[in-house]
Amino acid sequence: MLNTQGSINEFIPLFDFEKETKRWQQVYKIVNEPKPDIIPTRREAVWKKNKSTLWYHPAKEKKYKIPLFFVYSLLNKSYILDIGEGSSVIGGLTQLGYDVYLLDWGSPGYEDSNLSIDNYVIDYLAVAVKRAIRHSGIQEISLVGYCLGGTLAAILASITDLPIKNLVLSTIPIDFSIGIVPNKWLEALQNGHLNFDRFADVYGVIPADIMYAMFRGLSPIYISPMVNLVTRAYDEDYVEKWRRMDKWTKDATPFSGTAFKQLINDFYKENKLIKGELMIGDKRVDLSNINCPLFVLSTSRDTLVLEPQSLPIMDLVSSKDKTYQVVEAGHVSLALTGMFSIIADKWLSSRSEEIQPVFT
Amino acid sequence: MTNEKMYDPFEGFKQITEMLEKQINGLLFMATDNNEFVRLANTGLGVHSRYMELLRKNQELLAGFMNIPTKNDVANVANLSIQAEGKIDILEEQIWKLQDNLGVLNKDNLELFQEIIKMIKQMRSEFQKTVLEISELKTIKEDLHELRKGLVDIKIIQVNLRDLKNELNEIKEAQNELVEMYSVSEMKTIHPDIQEVKLGLNQLTEIKNEIAELKGLVVKESPKGKAKEKELVTIK
Question: Which residue of B7, B28, B52 is in closest CB contact with A220?
Answer without folding.
Answer: B28
